[in-house]
């Protein structure tokens, strides 16, 4: 049966079950997959690559007006079709081998592109660093550069398979045409084996495509923490008249060529960024680099800021040798052009400076507890890690000075600066955080007693000593989390330095308003994110025992650094499940705040579920978020509900997550919030069901999704379950009203939760 398709129309959609073999009688067809693309012409047969999985791996799109001859096909019936149409045999083998050749070529090209792109990024950053060194400018670190590595495939395609298909056509086609092989059964086995090999090759191509996407983000991304922006910043620093501006322009041109060839780079973002650069370049060429405008506020602040290091050291009550060492280390750090250098000298300098920084911080903090009028420079030190106006850059120092006195945090709304957090512990309002071994303060001092380091009397004394508690926090959580939130572990140094400022400070500043707005946005999607189930009892109202949910928002602590990470440090305080989680952010956050908090919320959901489920967190006989997700990932290869494409994505994602189930879930949760929750489906149906069952969207979002067939069945099941819970709540309301009692707040909140 002949079918006509207009240019641009989809002939077969990837993921759909194969129901026919379609021979192209006229025109050209484009086969599209995230990891490869090739063209088919007259005489080629669409569907041969899908015989083994039973569903299309590629999406086939008409490149011009196309006519196809369609032959009905059911799994296992290829031999029957060939016996009915013996002339079809040579045609189908020729097309199958041709398609395999295209796929192998795409695989080899993709592998070359991966290696080429990796070396281009590494070489370009080295070139950028060389320019910086020439003009005595400290190069800025490219986030995540230290985490990338050359392409490494755990399950690569063996070279013999590539050679095998390259040499098969000239041998096999003449043999089939001369009927020297048992045609039908042989061809059936050949094509089944070939389609399985196609599946394997495309799985590797998918991983390479993901690798290229990750690498390309270092060149350009939506947060502007990329190589493109580093070169623009450098261009602004040296101006248009310098000799090396031509070399930088050349580097830009090469970068744009690379970016144009990478499909994962958003085209609109690319066009917008390139347009900005060209306008900037034209403006600099016409007018030169305008000197920065003098901030009138800076003149008033200048006297207070000059000599900041001396002010801090005079204030801190620490030993003279610590002060001398810190002063010397800061001066040495200032002299380093490349403050991110990883040689032994620079590495040791950063390690020593880090150690001394915390000694000075500890001493200054204890002095400040008795000081009602803490100098502004010391507040800058406590809040931002600021130590020196030249190291920070005078404009940055001026901005820090302007916000240090009235920093927009809000402890009453769960958002603390690190100084406010430490002070809350000292005042007994908060308990210390767990240390890196997951031991809280009580467990820590008990261990000291058990090992004979302190007596039982000392343990009892320390248990209520707030000075010891704050010391525990200063020595454990603070230095470790400060380093983690900074994000670039090998180049971490806690002092505020201009070379770490990758974005405008005012825009990247995390305030109580910004963090709470981002959390509200997340909770507007995942309304139950921070609700905890607890037991409520009120015999006077006729309620012996009732499960209710209460919302406990997390404490957010702002660490004194310019960073790119967030940390979900602990899901509860002590043993009580109705205490706030603790999440830490950099006070200047270079990455998107909404994305980071979505990630931390995902981590919280996982850890809270594990806390509730205990040792049975991955036991499917007791259904929970963690047990169902664990089972889904553990057995995804055998799951018939997943398409081959979906299985490839899971396999690639597991490699990125280093086979960590929690990391896999967190990545899916971020997709759930950032895309699925805004009407842009990105997940497979199995993961979608698990996320919806345990992290359902709010009523407003559910109403919008009713028009989407992907959610129809999930929503119907949810509505049935929720209606049963609301019916139980109606009966409870009637029971309370019948005895003339007032509806308790806890029950009213639970009803609101079920109606959300």
Major sheet summary line:
4 strands, antiparallel
* Secondary structure category: alpha+beta
Average pLDDT rating: 90
Helical content stands at 55-70%
State Rg.
31 Å
* Backbone shape: globular
Proportion of β residues?
Answer: 5-15%
The total count of strands amounts to 14
SS summary, helix count: 29
What low-confidence regions span 5 or more consecutive residues with pLDDT below 50? none
The spatial strand order of the largest sheet comes to: 1-8-3-6
Write the layout of secondary structure elements.
Elements: E1 2-5, E2 10-12, E3 20-26, E4 29-33, E5 36-40, E6 45-46, E7 59-62, E8 66-72, H1 78-84, H2 88-134, H3 159-177, H4 183-219, H5 227-238, H6 245-260, H7 267-287, H8 296-305, H9 308-315, H10 320-335, H11 344-368, H12 376-384, H13 389-392, H14 394-404, E9 415-417, H15 418-426, H16 441-450, H17 456-463, H18 466-475, H19 477-486, H20 505-508, H21 512-525, E10 531-538, E11 543-551, E12 555-563, E13 566-570, E14 582-589, H22 593-613, H23 625-634, H24 644-656, H25 661-674, H26 685-694, H27 699-705, H28 712-738, H29 745-755
Parallel strand pairs: 9-12, 12-14
Antiparallel strand pairs: 1-8, 2-7, 3-6, 3-8, 4-5, 4-7, 10-11, 13-14
């Amino acid at each position: 049966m002949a079918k006509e398709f207009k240019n641009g129309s989809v002939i077969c959609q990837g993921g759909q079950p194969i129901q026919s073999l379609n021979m192209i009688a006229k025109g050209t067809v484009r086969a599209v997959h995230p990891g490869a693309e090739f063209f088919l012409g007259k005489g080629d047969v669409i569907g041969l690559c899908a015989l083994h999985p039973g569903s299309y791996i590629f999406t086939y799109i008409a490149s011009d007006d196309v006519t196809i001859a369609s032959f009905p096909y059911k799994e296992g019936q290829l031999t029957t079709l060939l016996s009915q149409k013996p002339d079809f045999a040579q045609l189908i083998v020729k097309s199958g081998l041709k398609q395999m050749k295209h796929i192998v070529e795409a695989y080899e090209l993709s592998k070359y592109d991966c290696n080429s792109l990796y070396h281009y990024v590494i070489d370009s950053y080295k070139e950028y660093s060389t320019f910086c060194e020439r003009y005595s400018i400290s190069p800025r670190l490219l986030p995540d550069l230290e985490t990338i590595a050359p392409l490494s495939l755990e399950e690569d395609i063996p070279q013999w398979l590539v050679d095998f298909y390259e040499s098969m056509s000239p041998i096999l086609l003449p043999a089939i045409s001369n009927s020297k092989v048992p045609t039908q059964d042989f061809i059936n086995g050949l094509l089944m084996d070939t389609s399985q090999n196609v599946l394997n090759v495309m799985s590797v191509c998918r991983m390479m495509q993901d690798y290229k996407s990750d690498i390309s983000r270092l060149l350009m991304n939506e947060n502007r923490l990329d190589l493109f922006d580093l070169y623009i910043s450098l261009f602004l620093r040296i101006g248009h008249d310098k000799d090396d501006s031509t070399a930088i322009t050349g580097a830009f041109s090469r970068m744009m060529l690379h970016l144009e060839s990478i499909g994962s780079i958003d085209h609109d973002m690319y066009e917008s960024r390139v347009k900005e650069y060209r306008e900037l370049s034209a403006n600099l060429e016409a007018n030169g680099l305008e000197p920065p405008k003098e901030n009138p506020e800076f003149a008033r602040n200048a006297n207070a800021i000059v000599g900041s290091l001396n002010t801090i050291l005079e204030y801190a009550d620490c030993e003279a040798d610590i002060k001398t060492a810190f002063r010397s280390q800061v001066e040495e750090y200032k002299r380093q052009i490349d403050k991110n250098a990883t040689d032994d000298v620079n590495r040791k300098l950063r390690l020593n400076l880090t150690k001394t920084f915390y000694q000075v911080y500890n001493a200054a903090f204890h002095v400040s507890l008795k000081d009602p009028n803490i100098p502004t420079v010391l507040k800058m030190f406590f809040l931002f890690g600021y130590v020196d106006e030249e190291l920070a850059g005078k404009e940055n120092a001026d901005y820090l000075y302007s916000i240090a006195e009235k920093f927009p945090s809000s402890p009453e709304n769960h958002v603390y600066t690190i100084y406010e957090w430490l002070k809350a512990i000292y005042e007994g309002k908060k308990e210390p955080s767990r240390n890196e071994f997951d031991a809280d303060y009580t467990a820590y001092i008990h261990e000291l007693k058990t090992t004979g380091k302190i007596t039982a009397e000392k343990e009892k004394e320390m248990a209520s000593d707030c000075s010891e508690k704050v010391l525990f926090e200063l020595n454990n959580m603070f230095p470790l989390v400060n380093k983690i939130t900074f994000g670039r572990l090998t180049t971490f140094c806690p002092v505020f330095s201009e070379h770490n400022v990758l974005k405008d400070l005012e825009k990247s500043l995390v305030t109580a308003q910004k963090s709470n707005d981002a959390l509200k946005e997340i909770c507007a999607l995942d309304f139950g994110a921070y609700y905890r189930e607890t037991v409520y009892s009120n015999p006077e109202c006729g309620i012996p025992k009732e499960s209710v949910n209460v919302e406990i928002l997390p404490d957010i602590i702002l660490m004194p650094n310019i960073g790119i990470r967030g940390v979900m440090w602990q899901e509860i305080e002590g043993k009580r499940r109705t205490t706030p989680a603790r999440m830490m952010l950099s006070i200047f956050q270079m990455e998107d705040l909404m994305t980071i908090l979505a990630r931390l919320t995902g981590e919280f959901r996982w850890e809270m579920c594990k806390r509730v489920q205990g040792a049975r967190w991955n036991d499917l006989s007791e259904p929970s978020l963690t047990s169902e997700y664990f089972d889904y990932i553990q057995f995804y290869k055998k799951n018939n509900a997943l398409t081959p494409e979906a299985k490839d994505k899971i396999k690639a994602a597991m490699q990125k997550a280093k086979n960590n189930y929690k990391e896999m879930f967190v990545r899916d949760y971020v997709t759930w919030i950032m895309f699925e929750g805004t009407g842009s489906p990105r997940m497979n149906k199995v993961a979608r069901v698990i996320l919806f069952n345990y992290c359902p969207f709010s009523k407003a979002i559910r109403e919008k999704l009713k028009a989407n067939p992907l959610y129809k069945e999930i929503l119907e099941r949810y509505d049935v379950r929720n209606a049963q819970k609301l019916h139980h709540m109606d009966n409870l309301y009637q029971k309370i009203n019948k005895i003339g009692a007032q509806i308790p707040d806890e029950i009213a909140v639970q009803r609101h939760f079920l109606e959300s």
